[in-house]
């Protein structure tokens, strides 16, 4: 039997999973690290802490497994997108890893958007113009930290750093590159216009390779520590988002991956790159012939958490005393309210919104309240509002990719049968809950297996991912949602002027 390790360098931890070639999990390790936030909008991580976590996670799964390490044919990587590390001439870091959650470049992405140049660049790079993107961060560094910028020789991300330390080669895969805002997803090369705006040259970026690129010649010291054989291949892999699509078996055309955890996203694999004339969607590389188009939302399960904590404190305490899950207790209450919450609509924009509005000023709204509405209505309306919003992202996606046939749904929300059924009803499509554990690690492992010749095509993942539950749309429910959705959509657009006014008020008081 052959084995492959899928490793995911995430924002809170690095996970490593050892799989056999049928996708069965043998070992799992998770090693965490802190996020540094010592000034407003900052979100950085220490590169050495992450490097050590990667080595530790690989060591744990390798040493714990009751197999001959020589049978581990490869390690393949996933990583969080949009990280930026500045290196000097000697390739020594001058900064920590500035993560996707860092917002200090907001002013520069806003300027880029307002000038119209942002949309032009987005249409080539597929990366929404946003402070998360290395493009915005480099403009911020150049303008606000000119001394650092003058010393900067290379601009790289966390995965590039880790692999550079293990192999001495500075390479970036097309997938991570495609999330920098500097890379043309059509030509699969750095985009000159974006480089010009950033004020850097391609020589300051790592060499771009395909997501199946293999590193050979693991440094002796790391082979010794981890227990991995020196002749093992490391496959560069891709980004966590696109690999999670692969890992939940949403790789065939027409299959939508939807996730609602703390935040949320919908994504779909396509065979041609495409961007959105309205700039609402991302398009990132998965492999040389596959791209992933989708939209991320800020307001997922975090909104449910807010409703629980602010409106249902007594129930939260009861749940704790009864030792039951507070979310289960609340979804049982919401289930007693009819679909459509008797005409109460909730716009879930508590944390501003990325797709589809891309408006940091957006704010939440209950609309349609009357005296017969109860707290339980507010609760159900909030759960519906989160799904309505994701549905509006699907409407944007459909303009570019056409209509999906089915949905693979994952994330904390999928623990609730009410919420899963709500998704099937609002989207009016079959919803499947895949049996997926650490989907980005599995996606990385599958990409690695393809690179190593252990499988012929990425669709082999189909045999590795089980199904736990399916839901069919219920006609009675979707009739209510069909009536309310147009109101939801008009409201969220009509309020855009007022979002700005109220956000300004909140900032100044
Ligand atoms: P993360 O995005 O941080 O990985 P999860 O995928 O665990 O988080 O999702 C956390 C969210 O999932 C919670 O905020 C909550 O909204 C939702 N959630 C968790 N458990 C349940 C449940 N039993 N029923 C409904 N929603 C749940």
Can you tell me about this structure?
It is built from 18 helices and 23 strands. The protein is an alpha+beta fold. It has a seven-stranded mixed β-sheet with strand order 17-18-16-15-21-22-23. The chain has a six-stranded mixed β-sheet with strand order 3-2-1-5-14-13. The chain has a two-stranded antiparallel sheet with strand order 4-7. Helix 1 packs across helix 6, helix 13 packs across helix 14 (375-401) and helix 14 (375-401) packs across helix 15. It starts with a strand and ends with a helix. Bound molecules: adenosine-5'-diphosphate. Adenosine-5'-diphosphate is lined by residues 261-262, 301-302, 304-305, 325, 327-328, 331, 411-413, 415-416, 419.
At a glance:
40% of the residues lie in helices and 22% in strands.
What's the overall geometry?
A: globular
Biggest sheet record = 7 strands, mixed
The low-confidence runs, each spanning 5 or more residues with pLDDT under 50, are: none
**Strand arrangement in the largest pleated sheet:** 17-18-16-15-21-22-23
Question: What portion of residues belong to β-strands?
Answer: 15-25%
């Amino acid at each position: 039997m052959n084995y492959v390790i899928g490793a995911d360098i995430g924002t809170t931890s690095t996970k490593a999973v050892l799989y056999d070639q049928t996708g069965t999990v043998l070992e799992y390790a998770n090693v965490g690290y802190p996020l540094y936030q010592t000034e407003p909008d900052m979100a950085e991580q220490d590169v050495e802490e992450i490097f050590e976590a990667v080595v530790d996670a690989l060591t744990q799964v390798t040493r714990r497994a009751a197999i001959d390490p020589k049978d581990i044919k490869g390690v393949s990587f996933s990583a969080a997108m949009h990280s930026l590390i500045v290196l000097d001439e000697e390739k020594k870091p001058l900064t920590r890893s500035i993560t996707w959650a860092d917002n200090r470049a907001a002013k520069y992405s806003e300027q880029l958007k307002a000038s119209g140049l942002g949309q032009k660049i987005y249409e080539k790079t597929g990366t929404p113009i946003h402070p998360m993107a290395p493009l915005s961060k480099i403009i911020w560094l150049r303008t606000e930290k000119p001394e650092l910028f003058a010393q900067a020789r290379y601009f790289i991300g966390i995965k590039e750093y880790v692999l550079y330390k293990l192999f001495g080669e500075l390479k970036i895969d097309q997938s991570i590159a495609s999330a920098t805002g500097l890379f043309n997803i059509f030509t699969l090369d750095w985009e000159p216009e974006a480089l010009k705006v950033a004020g850097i040259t391609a020589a300051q970026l790592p060499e771009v390779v395909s997501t199946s690129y293999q590193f050979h010649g693991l440094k002796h010291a790391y082979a010794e520590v981890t227990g991995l054989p020196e002749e093992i291949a490391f496959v560069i892999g891709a980004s966590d988002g696109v690999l999670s699509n692969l890992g939940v078996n949403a790789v065939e055309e027409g299959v939508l991956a939807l996730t609602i955890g703390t935040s949320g996203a919908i994504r779909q694999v396509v065979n041609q790159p495409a961007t959105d004339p309205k700039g609402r969607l991302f398009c990132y590389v998965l492999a040389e012939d596959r791209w992933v188009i989708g939209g991320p939302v800020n307001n997922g399960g975090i909104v449910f958490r807010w409703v629980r904590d602010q409106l249902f404190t007594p129930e939260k305490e009861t749940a704790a005393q009864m030792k039951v899950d507070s979310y289960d207790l609340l979804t049982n209450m919401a289930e007693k309210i009819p679909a459509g919450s008797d005409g109460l609509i909730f716009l879930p924009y508590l944390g501003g919104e990325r797709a589809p509005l891309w408006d940091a000023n957006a704010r939440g709204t209950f609309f349609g309240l009357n005296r017969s509405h109860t707290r339980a209505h507010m609760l159900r309306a909030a759960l519906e509002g989160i799904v309505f919003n994701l549905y509006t992202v699907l409407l944007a996606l459909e303009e570019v990719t056409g209509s999906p046939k089915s949905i693979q749904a994952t994330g904390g929300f999928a623990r609730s049968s009410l919420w899963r059924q709500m998704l099937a009803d609002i989207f009016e499509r079959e919803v499947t809950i895949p049996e997926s554990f650490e989907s980005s690690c599995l996606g990385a492992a599958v990409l690695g297996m393809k690179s190593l010749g252990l499988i012929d095509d990425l669709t082999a993942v189909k045999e590795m991912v089980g199904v736990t539950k399916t839901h069919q749309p219920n006609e009675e429910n979707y009739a209510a949602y069909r009536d309310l959705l147009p109101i939801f959509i008009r409201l969220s657009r009509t309020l855009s002027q007022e979002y700005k006014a109220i956000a300004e008020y909140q900032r100044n008081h």
